[in-house]
Every structure is written in structure tokens, then in C-alpha cells.
Amino acid sequence: MTLPSAKLAELGLDLPPVAAPVAAYVPAVLDRGVIRTSGQIPVVNGEPVCVGAVGADGTDPGAANEAARVCALNALAAAAEVAGGVDRLAGVVKVVGFVSSRPGFSGQAAVINGASELFGEIFGSAHARSAIGVAALPLDVSVEVEVEFSLRED
Fold this sequence. Notes:
Elements (H helix, E strand, L loop, with lengths): L3 H8 L16 E4 L2 E4 L5 E2 L2 E2 L12 H23 L5 E12 L7 H16 L4 E7 L8 E9 L3
Parallel strand pairs: 5-6
Antiparallel strand pairs: 1-2, 2-7, 3-4, 5-7
Helix pairs in contact: 2-3
């Protein structure tokens, strides 16, 4: 079994610093053996990397897919902080993804695949998931992801 830290190194990825909350919440909590993250947005070095609604004449779905990957990495960092290290995480239980969507856009699932595929590369297992279209997200970002992680039993 390959540890998450080794998979991250293999992928050339580093965990980012945990983003400071923009309102009254914490980035992640441990509850009955599951770490649940707050919604993580695509922020790199404190700046949103993908803004605006996705779809016709709006944000490109491919860019939003990449942003979902950034959200996933941010969620992983928040969970690792609560768990006491990324290698304490056993896998992903569930992903809920929100996509700021223009009228008529129905590709939310493809956008959230950015997060799901990253988790598959790191943990190698499937998870439950929802992909939801919404009118707007905080800071006008295009995507937001929240995740439930299971802990390793040592």
C-alpha cells in the first residue's frame, strides 16, 4: 500500500498551506472517525484561480475542472492538518462539488471530476459524490468542493 505522501511526491504535488477561513467556520473537523472539510475553493497563494460562472460565454469547463483539482488539494491539506499528517488519511468517503453555472450548463459532473480524479490518483479508491450547479459561490469562484476522509486504523 502506497502512502498518500508518496503518491503526492510521485505526482509532483505539495500540500498547500491551509487557507484561512473567510467567515465563521474552521477548515476541517474530526467527527466520529471521519474528517469533514468545509467547502474549499480554488485559492493559490491567497488568490482565487478560477472565477465566474461556467458555461456558454462564461468560464471554460476545462479551467473549472482544473480548479476542482485545486479545491481537492486544499481539502486534502485541511484534512491532513486535523488528522496529524496526510499519511493518517485512509481515503475519501464522499465529495460534494458545487459549480457556479450559467443557464443551460449541465456539465457539473465533468467539472467535479477534477477533484475525484485527483483523489483516485492519491488513494486509488472510489468514493460517493454529488455535483451540483449553483447560481454563485463565495468570492465569485467557479467551483467549491467539500470532502469526507476516512482515517487509517493503526
